[in-house]
Specification:
The chain is mainly alpha-helical. It has helices at residues 2-5, 10-15, 21-41, 93-105, 137-152, 159-181, 187-217, 223-244, 254-258, 263-270, 276-285, 290-301, 305-316; strands spanning 8-9, 51-53, 61-67, 77-79, 83-85, 88-90, 109-115, 128-129. It has a three-stranded mixed beta sheet. Helix 3 (21-41) crosses helix 5 (137-152), helix 3 packs across helix 6 (159-181) and helix 11 packs across helix 12 (290-301). The longest helix is centred in the middle third of the chain and has 31 residues, at 187-217. The chain is globular and about 65 Å long.
Length: 317
């Protein structure tokens, strides 16, 4: 209700002399990006970001992610309409921390992380939030593409499928966005290439670490031995990052790796990354045609969960 009550039409905001030039410039980027997303990526025309809401804070909400201490499977939070998700969101950080405390007392690995953007999947006419407007043009366009992808398709009860799908469309969409609007090159284009390389490198480090942890959790070792070895595998992930630290050109993941990591951190990251490679292969198999690709995604979603996961794994391999 706060978000909806504070919203203003973007056109009105652009005419308001009291609004900073920086905000107006970023809103114009949002308008350009959403027109591009509809025209080139086939994302929904309905539910365009037509309004702007300034919440007066840095983040719109906080998510709680949890996992068993010896499993990468996310703790599931179940709701009407959208089914079960691998996270639960709160508009107040204190509420998120309260749930996190209860889950920790159940001996779960827990993460609380801030959120700048989300989609209500078409249930409400989502406005652009001031929390979106962080970063440069590529970050703004990527956020919009990601959230509009959720409006196009959302599979009830499969967080990693939904987020990886939206992450792939965001990545491919940004590649086309750059090709269309920055063909002359320049500093922004070069920066985007370096940011993309940094993100891919980070993704590979974390997913390699996740695979090592999963192998150990599924092994025949007893639980006490698994718990003893667990910290060393997280340290191996940190060491992998330290060995590649000088290869990162723009982004800095020192803070992520320096925090006390647990399964929830890795599970939360994997929600957005686990199947991105598989979706890229599926996209290429459909000739790089978004309409055909979306139909293939829908067909994949109709499979039973074990078959769907096996199909995604086969695509990646």
């Amino acid at each position: 209700m706060e978000i909806l009550n504070k919203r203003r039409p973007i056109g009105e905001v652009l005419r308001d002399d009291g609004v900073s030039g920086e905000i107006k410039a970023k809103l114009r980027i949002i308008l350009r990006a959403q027109a591009f997303a509809t025209r080139r990526l086939g994302l929904p025309k309905e539910g365009h970001y037509r309004y702007f809401t300034d919440l007066g804070r840095e983040y719109v909400s906080w998510l709680v992610v949890a996992a068993q201490p010896l499993s990468m499977a996310e703790y599931q939070f179940c709701f009407p309409l959208v089914g079960c998700l691998g996270y639960k969101g709160f508009f107040k950080k204190a509420d998120a921390e309260a749930l996190a405390g209860r889950l920790r007392r159940k001996n779960l690995d827990v993460l609380v992380r801030p959120v700048r953007a989300y989609s209500t999947l078409g249930w409400f006419d989502d406005p652009v939030l001031n929390t979106f407007l962080n970063g440069q043009e590529m970050e703004l366009a990527g956020t919009l593409i990601h959230e509009q992808t959720h409006r196009l398709f959302f599979l009830k009860g499969d967080t990693a499928f939904n987020e990886s799908f939206a992450s792939f469309v965001e990545e491919e969409g940004l590649r086309l966005y750059v090709a269309e609007f920055f063909t002359g090159g320049g500093a922004l284009l070069r920066r985007h290439g370096k940011v993309r390389a940094d993100r891919l490198r980070f993704r590979e480090i974390v997913l390699r670490g996740r695979a090592r942890l999963e192998r150990m959790y599924r092994s025949s070792l007893d639980d006490a031995e698994k718990l003893r070895r667990k910290p060393s595998l997280f340290e191996a992930m940190r060491e992998d990052y330290r060995n590649q630290r000088d290869s990162f050109k723009i982004l800095d993941y020192d803070g992520w790796f320096s925090q006390p990591l647990n399964n929830a951190h890795v599970a939360g990251f994997a929600q957005y990354s686990l199947y991105v490679k598989a979706f890229r292969v599926l996209f290429e198999q459909n000739g790089g045609d978004f309409k055909r690709f979306y139909k293939a995604v829908e067909a994949l979603a109709e499979l039973e969960p074990p078959q769907r996961r096996a199909s995604l794994k086969n695509l990646e391999q």
